[in-house]
């Protein structure tokens, strides 16, 4: 796993093998950030990384200048790895060990970018609940973007605020924005 752009471009990250994760591939991450580069200047933004796993997306955001990042995962090993890596690279990432559903119920800050990468075995209802909770609890800034990574078997194209989707192999990124017009 490597950081693909920004001040830490090219840095390798080697998480422990025993973490229960499925990191976003470098190809998928590069494609995702090519899209985000057309929508945002990362300097000064705030981001929330849910189901953060190894922190792969959080490090990429920090490397590109995102000012404030909160990473959430249920696994203590993942949280420990994120904390250690953030300290080693001097990154402003705050990590929380928490159930994402409970975190979303209680959390009151809003973010410019929210990235959600739950386990692919989540049910359709669980994916929909996460997206609904983010919008209903005003966790996304008005001009912000919610990105959900999911398998091609999970369908989110019927949900409100979906702007567009991009497929990369077996993975799909669904992009949600307030009052969005669907792109082709």
TrEMBL record:
Stored Pfam families: Cons_hypoth95
UniProt record, GO biological process: rRNA methylation
Domain of life per record: Bacteria
Record-linked InterPro entries: DNA_methylase_N6_adenine_CS, RNA_MeTrfase_RsmD, SAM-dependent_MTases_sf
The entry's keywords: Methyltransferase, Transferase
Stretches for region Disordered: 1-21
Source organism of this protein record: Myroides indicus
MF-aspect GO terms: methyltransferase activity; nucleic acid binding
Protein name as catalogued: 16S rRNA (Guanine(966)-N(2))-methyltransferase RsmD
UniProt KW Nucleotide-binding keyword: no
NCBIfam families: 16S rRNA (guanine(966)-N(2))-methyltransferase RsmD
